[in-house]
Amino acid sequence: MAFALESAAFLLTAEDIEGRLKKLCETSLDIVIMADSSPRGQELSCRMREFSGIPLVVLRRGNKPARLIVLEMGADVYLNEPVSPKQLVARVYSLLRH
User: Fold this and answer.
1) What is the pTM of this model?
2) Hey, which residues does 57 pair with through a beta bridge?
3) Residue 42 in contact with residue 69, Cβ under 8 Å?
């Protein structure tokens, strides 16, 4: 999925949180899809919420406690991996409608 997003110029990557935040500030985005709900990803979503209301979708394999933490830290949608591309697209369209 990352390859498809990257080849369509929808994927921003950076090595560290500061680099990712800088790219978020420099780029006009309609939505962020993040496949990192590690402590580093959680910090990124928290810091992103300090300056942006961009819809945030988090993809992860995880349990209920992890899901709750991610949602409390700013994610709009949490999807368990593996997620079907059709479900992801439907969630994106739903977020962009609002």
Assistant:
1) 0.78
2) 33, 77
3) yes
